[in-house]
Write a structure and sequence with these properties.
heterodimer, A: mainly beta, seven-stranded mixed beta sheet, 0% helix, globular, B: 112 residues, mainly beta, six-stranded mixed beta sheet
Chain lengths: 116, 112
């Protein structure tokens, strides 16, 4: 009963490079969420996706950030031309198809991105 | 603007003591979750509360959702060193998508 998987766990990029973060949801889960935890700050919502659809991207920076959840394969959070301010822990969460008012989300171990 | 305020921010207690962590907001939430996060790991879901006034127990942990669904508390009885960690409340707002709004966090250290 594997949980949410993220890779890589640690990623180092130089300024201007691209970062690709991957997330495989729990088996049977069709909803994926990305959150960012900046140093000394709390977890902040970025984007919510279902298969092949972006449902809510209200927390995504307008530039350089994009996310997808293709029909096959993991969800990808992509950061182009990274800057030092992008250094953070990025967490993916997944949830099963909704029932009632419960919004339980299960988190992966995170990817720690360091931009040098 | 932080929608969910947790108190206290930090708590250091001795093994065996009781403690309560509070999660407060002026907004109404359709559900509220409590998570515990350890260094270098993702948050682990402890409980979900949905109904106003609901009380849930998980061994030595008792969770309560306020009657108006604006606040919640977590009470730990006879704390143990294994309870050490960052406790986070997170709410889903009425009428919004499934995104969670996280609280400011309470860092608990239980000394043996």
């Amino acid at each position: 009963n594997a949980g949410v998987m993220q890779n890589p766990r640690h990623l180092v990029r130089r300024r201007g490079q691209e970062a690709r973060l991957r997330c495989s949801p729990m088996k049977g889960h069709s909803h994926v969420y990305w959150y960012r935890q900046l140093p000394e700050e709390g977890l902040k919502f970025m984007v919510y996706l279902q298969k092949e659809n972006i449902i809510d991207e209200s927390g995504m920076p307008k530039e350089r950030f994009s996310a997808e959840f293709p029909k096959e394969g993991p969800s990808i959070l992509r950061i182009q031309q990274v800057v030092r301010g992008d250094s953070a822990a990025y967490f993916c969460a997944s949830s099963p198809p909704m029932s009632g008012l419960t919004y339980e989300q299960y988190f992966g171990p995170g990817t720690r991105l360091t931009v040098t | 603007t932080q929608l969910l305020e947790q108190s206290p921010q930090f708590l250091s207690i001795q093994e065996g003591e009781n403690l309560t962590v509070y999660c407060n907001s002026s907004s109404v939430f359709s559900s509220l979750q409590w998570y515990r996060q350890e260094p270098g790991e993702g948050p682990v879901l402890l409980v979900t509360v949905v109904t106003g006034g609901e009380v849930k127990k998980l061994k030595r942990l008792t969770f309560q959702f306020g009657d108006a669904r604006k606040d919640s508390s977590l009470h730990i009885t006879a704390a143990q060193p294994g309870d050490t960690g960052l406790y986070l409340c997170a709410g889903a707002k009425l009428g919004a998508t499934n995104k969670l709004i996280f609280g400011t966090g309470t860092l608990l250290a239980v000394q043996p």
